[in-house]
Amino acid sequence: MNDKLTSKMTWLQIALVVAFCFLAAFFCQHNDGLYQQTIYQVNQVQNGKATKMTDEFQNVDHYHNQRFFGTITNGKYAGHHLSIKNAYSDSHAMDHQYTKGQKLFITLHTQPKLHATVKDIKRDAPIAFLLAIAISLLFVILKLRGVTVISSILINTILFWVAVKLDHNNNGAAVIWIFSVLAVVFCFVTLLLVMGWSKKMLVTLSAVLCATAATILITLIVFGLTNERGIYYESMQYVTQLPKPLFIAEVLIGVLGAVMDEATDIVASLATLKQERPELSSMAIFKSGRAIGKSIMGPLINVLFFIFMAETLAMTLLYLKNGNTWHYSFSMNMSLGMTSSLISGIGIVLTVILSSAFAGLWIKGDER
């Protein structure tokens, strides 16, 4: 597999990928003039002595004071030299350790004299570097089809931003309806750009929408029958609107991504199989789709489980380190992630059945 991949990549393509990535990072490292926020470059750091701290649960941490010297790189005070104090802990739970060469966003204070406090680290250079690598690899491996993938990502990002703005303007009153419409548009745009307008695309679209709708319906029925026992919405921190509709919207988008990936693989495989063996009956196609689904839904469910649970790992460990029980730590941090994983698993299983059934009914031997 790797030999076939590298054989398609010429040395010129590899060189262009590397050059594009470094140019993107170089541009972001020297684009301070484009920012309205004041940027400060650290030229020298002086670290003080560490102070040991132990809490009532015998958790040990060390606190450090540091002073760094540097230069403002943009705005009215560009070129001015400043020294800034900073305190940080080894755990870095609520603070940062700054090092020589970093660029920081700062807030300037002019009274009684010019001084500053640090707001955050300027991170656009490494982000741009990683983004450039991803885009370059898409073009190198997929050639012009990489354009459709990138286009779908950009369009979906804009659509998601519009949905969030609409939800914000409506104070969360119609969050489920907004994200339901968004899910349909997401699915249609992505499949249209990736698969093109074809019967395969329509079969995949039908399977994805039906599986997603059925999954959400089952979720709401189960929530109603169980009175949502064991669902701790209070773990959704800083939420300023009703948490249940927002959680359903989150699950809706999460399920959509999982089932779309699975349905695309199954329908594309069955379309190729039907094209090569047009004599296969609808039942044979259905059984083949189930066989394909069995081989991919296990790893897919596990991937979603790991993603949902990994997001909560840090807070769970923090709860445990502060004397909370496993039950309480799990309930307050991992219960919603586990619930999302189970709901996504239901959607993945339904997608196997629906994708196989729709493909068997609608895809003909001459369908490309």
User: How many separate domains make up the residues?
Assistant: 2
Principal-axis shape equals: globular
Number of strands: 5
CATH class call of the largest domain: Mainly Alpha
State the major sheet: 5 strands, antiparallel
Question: Which structural class fits the helix and strand makeup?
Answer: alpha+beta
Termini gap: 25 Å
What is the name of the CATH architecture of the largest domain? Up-down Bundle
Brief summary of the model shown:
InterPro entries: YibE_F (IPR012507). The protein contains ten helices and five strands; from the N terminus they run ααβββββαααααααα.
Outline the structure in words.
This is Membrane protein. It comes from Lentilactobacillus parakefiri. The chain is α+β, with helices and mostly antiparallel strands. The protein folds into 2 domains: 1-143, no CATH class; 146-362, Multidrug efflux transporter AcrB transmembrane fold. Helix content is 62%, strand content 14%. The protein has 10 helices and 5 strands; from the N terminus they run ααβββββαααααααα. It has helices spanning 2-8, 11-29, 124-142, 145-169, 175-195, 199-226, 243-276, 282-310, 313-321, 326-362, and strands at residues 38-54, 60-72, 81-89, 103-109, 115-121. Strands 3-2-1-4-5 form a 5-stranded antiparallel beta sheet, with no helix packed on it. A hairpin with a 5-residue loop joins strand 1 (38-54) and strand 2. Helix 8 (282-310) packs antiparallel against helix 10 (326-362). The protein is globular. The two termini are 25 Å apart.
